[in-house]
Amino acid sequence: MAEVTLQDAVKKxxxxxxxxxxxxxxxxxxxxxxxxxxxxDQVGTFITGEAGLTEILTEGKATLRAYTKIAFxxxxxxxxxxxPSGEIEESVWALHQMMVQQAMEHRAAMIQxxxxxxxxxxxxxxxxxxx
Length: 131
Fold this sequence. Notes:
Layout: H1 6-28, E1 30-37, H2 40-47, H3 53-58, E2 63-71, E3 76-79, H4 90-127
Antiparallel strand pairs: 1-2, 2-3
Helix pairs in contact: 1-4
């Protein structure tokens, strides 16, 4: 069995991390939040796996109620839910805004974590005598 040196292990870790960072950068370039409403009985079928989101959407049992897309440069597309007479549906909108805020906080935390991992990998690579 071939012996793996610390330098080899660190290089492999750095290489794997670089690949994951590339995928991550593509994934975080846009943040999308979709808020759906559905009859209560459909929530159970979704959770138990009896029906997937695509199936529930196709059968018309889930309705897209609000949508936000935020590009990495800050450009936004926002669709606000309104009722039959054009008034904003405050409860759906409040829930959607809360989900957008959580998604943005999660994205920021992920960016920080990936940055720290990359910095650690570069430091370890340097300490292991890598290039």
